Amino acid sequence: MSTHIKFITITYLKSFINVFLIMFGLVFILNILGELDFFSKLEVDPFFPLYLSLINTPSLIFEMLPFIF
Q: For 19-23, what is the mean pLDDT?
C-alpha cells in the first residue's frame, strides 16, 4: 500500500473511533439517567441500572448509526 492510502485509512479510522466513542459516551449517560429515574422508586442493587445501561447502549448505537454518519 502506498503512503497516502495508509495515511487516509489511519486518519479515517481514528476519526471513526473518536466519533463512535463520543456517541457511546453520550448514549450511555442518557441511558443511565433514564435507568436511575426508573429505578429510583425500587430497592435494587446500585450496579443494576449501570449494568442495564451498559447492555442496552450497543443496541441503541446500532439503531443510531445511520444518523451518526
A: 92
